[in-house]
Backbone:
């Protein structure tokens, strides 16, 4: 999808992009190869040709910083397929909604092959999280722009979280998927294991407090499994939403 995205060009909005598509310009190369493009002066065309050449080179190099700063944030989802091998599907559990007053209990990341979980008081620290965040060139979350990433940044201010981010809560709205993560999972047919199927955010808090108060390892293990299922399911949901979005463009 990113290779047909002209919204990355300066002063090009959705209407102009749709006009380009309807005129048969469906790829960066299509634009570059045209001698003239309706609505673009010769000077504008030359500038856009050069800029799209930079886009191609940066995409080939998987330079996430280039696209983070040049592609509108609400359109970062367009990078999903091209960056698939470099994505961190991320989710946190906390003791409450306030990133200033409450605690981040667990943080899990799925990279498409392996899940890593960081637990407060064990392996959750600046060094381990910096190494984890640096592994990825793009994040995928559910409501991470409003909750998870700001929470992480508050607790660990030195982390570099300035990367392309596909927030499935908001891009899901574009294809009619609304509500919480569990509701949307059920709607699209994603099933959870029986032992975590009924766990929600409030129960996750109780599991952590039980672990903290009594040292009950089963409570911690269940919390970790719940958090890990969240991130693994984000990839399945991301695939579904990306497919629907691309069909709409």
Residues:
């Amino acid at each position: 999808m990113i290779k047909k995205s002209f919204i990355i060009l300066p002063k090009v909005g959705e209407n102009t992009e749709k006009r380009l598509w309807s005129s048969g310009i469906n790829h960066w190369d299509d634009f570059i190869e045209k001698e003239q493009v309706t609505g673009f002066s010769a000077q504008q065309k030359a500038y856009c040709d050069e800029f799209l050449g930079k886009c191609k080179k940066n995409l080939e190099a998987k330079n996430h910083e280039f696209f983070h700063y040049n592609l509108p944030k609400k359109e970062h989802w367009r990078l999903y397929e091209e960056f698939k091998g470099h994505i961190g599907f991320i989710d946190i559990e906390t003791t409450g909604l306030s990133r200033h007053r409450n605690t981040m209990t667990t943080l899990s990341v799925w990279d498409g092959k392996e899940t890593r979980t960081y637990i407060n008081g064990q392996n959750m620290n600046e060094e381990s999280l910096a190494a984890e965040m640096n592994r990825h060139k793009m994040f995928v979350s559910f409501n991470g722009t409003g909750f998870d990433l700001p929470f992480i940044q508050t607790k660990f201010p030195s982390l570099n979280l300035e990367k392309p981010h596909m927030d499935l809560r908001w891009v899901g709205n574009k294809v009619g998927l609304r509500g919480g993560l569990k509701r949307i999972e059920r709607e699209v047919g994603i099933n959870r294991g029986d032992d975590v199927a009924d766990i929600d955010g409030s129960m996750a808090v109780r599991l952590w407090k039980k672990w903290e108060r009594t040292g009950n390892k089963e409570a911690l293990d269940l919390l970790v499994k719940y958090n890990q299922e969240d991130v693994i399911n984000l990839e399945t949901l991301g695939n579904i939403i990306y497919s629907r979005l691309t069909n709409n463009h």
Q: What stands out?
A: The mean pLDDT is 96. The CA atoms of residues 20 and 26 lie 7 Å apart.
